[in-house]
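Continuing the batch. This is chain 6 of the set; chains 1 through 5 are on the previous pages. Same settings as before, nothing changed between runs. Recording input and output for traceability.
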Amino acid sequence: MALAHGSGIVTDGLVLAYDNGSSQSWKGAPTTNLIDGYNPETPATTMYWYYSSGNQYFTKSNVLEDAVNGYYYADVYITTSSQSGYYNGQLYTGGVTINSGSYYSISAWVWTDRAFQLRLGMIKHGSPYTQYISMQAHELEVGWNYVVTSTSSAMSATYTDARFEMAFGYAPAGTHLKIYKPQVEAYSFATPFTPTSRSTTQVLTDWVGGQNITMLSLTDYNSDNTFSFDGTNNTDRGIYLPSQDLNGSYSVEAWFKFDTGGTTQGIVGDLQWGWYRFLISTNNQIYAGHIKSTSPWLTNFLTAPTQLSTGTWHHAVQVFDQSAGMRIYINGELDVSNTNTNNFTLTGRGPQWVGQDRPSAQSTRNNLDGTVPVLRIYKNKALSAAEVAQNYNALRGRFGV
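Output for chain 6:
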């Protein structure tokens, strides 16, 4: 499966990364997969999937493990094709409860070697097979497809006999399919797969090492699966990153957008006293660097001369090379540099609070009015100009720059 975090990014030295647009970084409000235990993530010995009609075969022995990602998927072959009717050839699981007053989203990754129209929804698990959540059509292309069927209004009744239904009646004979990460959520939009439940604070999963990245408030979730900040200096806002102990060379990279200018706004900062800062200044310029935490407390900060515009996506990278000094790149180009090699020595600290700058005590915060959908941290790695440009070009199309 092609990873959505951007093909061709530099991975050497990468120790932490999240990406709102990545299938490997969870995004959205806390949720539970209602078909946990009934999906191909469960090993073959406890599989509860079924199929009907005679034009495909699918058995427990067809539940295979993806050695790369560590998940199980259903391996399905279509032997004949009806080219009529939604249900002639289907993969389903039943006995799911959906409640009145709730919204639902049904999602899955589907790999196919033939293009065709897939139907996905929820029906009654038994005659007369009433469509509880309408079977929506999804045009599949060859390769991996992420399909989502969501309700546009709350359910008007509770059903305890709902069936997750994926119909292949329009698949050409000989089609090979892989069904990966099926999920049903009591939510109005789909979030990437979770095999069980999520905690109330976990916002994203670091896709480098699986570290938990926590959000302090659910207020910042948006209906399009992203999160943003409103600039409010509240103690319960922001995203916490585990410390990476950046005591040598390092690089911190962010895609971001800010909605109002003229104020100090943190992109990512330290716990307190401004030991590490990466921010937008009152002149709408990037200011970044650190303080050496041993006497005589030497500073190493830079201000990039480029003035950034509000409401526009920007890419900024702060690079510290302990043998050459500090550099800041804006949209793939070097903007400013120095030859200051005073390094960051404070253990357990550094770039930890996304959307905040804390120049003094913890309670003093310069909060971002905007969003940071992508952030990466490299340890013992000073990205070169070519590597910065490589990372910029990998995602610039997504952000329209």
